[in-house]
Amino acid sequence: MPIFTGSGTAVVTPFGADGKFNYGAYEKLIEFQIANGADAIITCGTTGEASTLSLMEHVEVVGAAAAITNGRVPVIAGAGGNDTNDCIELGKACTDVGANALMYVTPYYNKPSQRGIIAHYTALDKAVNAPIVMYNIPGRCVTNMTSKTIAEIAQLPNVVAIKEASGDFGQVAEIAELCDITIYSGNDDYILPILSLGGKGVISTTGNIAPKTMHDMVTKYLAGDTAEALKLQLSILGLMRQLFADGNPVGVKAALNLMGFGMGDCRLPLATAEESHVNALAAEMKKFGLLA
Predict the structure, then answer these.
(1) Is 163 assigned a catalytic role?
(2) Is 135 a catalytic residue?
(3) 55-69 and 84-96 helices cross at what angle (nearest 10)?
(4) Considering 28, 163, 200, 253, which one is annotated as catalytic?
């Protein structure tokens, strides 16, 4: 069984004026997600600025997500890194505070071989007692997990899904051919191609501001209403382009701030969105009915 089917939102981590985690703003965002159909909450991923959170902050944010959702939707905690032992300890800490599953990105910077990637996930599988989502995003991690590597890792008992963001649909087809694993789209602009290859949903950044649209896109497609799903995918592409103009999560934080969610700024080294990009983003949001 998939951890979820539909659209799981990779939520941002809000910071207050003092630079610290803002629990109240986080609660407001997660309640908005659940009220508008988000099928899962993914916390402390790329969109959640995990790379700038201390260990204590990381666990605090995951625990907050678990407490706020209170079992209404699954909470998947990002616990990746480029040190296997640190990933193990972080994963254990996240499950201790209520995470239902763990998402582990391909180790970055080290540039491990395919054998090294397999050994990494094997060690994680043995050490943590939770469902594991692999995350393949060579654009950020440099190294691509091949379909054969993914199929081998998928045989591990705790590994149940992959967030696929390679952009290679041939590879996605091979993953579906080689192993029985839940595939989630890792990019918002090609959800339907992933679904057409047997995917079960998306782990979405755009879902922060448009959770209902992302949920409806997936559920309509899986229910057989592919024409309406395509209409939704195409209708939101312009908004997505502006949302990622300054990178992730710079744009989505700016969008949420425009909507009154009070997410604050990103932590350095991410700079605030350029004014011209914010204006263009606001215009697309108005077209989509997200701003008056």
Answers:
(1) yes
(2) yes
(3) 30
(4) 163
Q: SS3 string of 158-220? A: CEEEEEECCCCHHHHHHHHHHCCCEEEECCHHHHHHHHHCCCCEEEECHHHCCHHHHHHHHHH
Q: What is the pLDDT of residue 292?
A: 85
For residues 115 and 120, what is the distance between their CA atoms, to the nearest angstrom? 9
Question: 249 CB contacts (<8 Å, ≥6 apart)?
Answer: 12, 46, 47, 48, 49, 205, 266, 270
Which residues, 6+ apart, have CB-to-CB distance to 245 below 8 Å? Answer: 251, 273, 274, 277, 280, 281
Tokens representing residue 162 in the block: 């992959």
User: pTM score, two decimals?
Assistant: 0.96
- Which of these is catalytic: 135, 184, 190, 221? 135
- Residue 1: pLDDT above 90? no
Nearest to 19 by CA among 47, 43, 44, 49: 49
Residue 26 confidence (pLDDT): 98
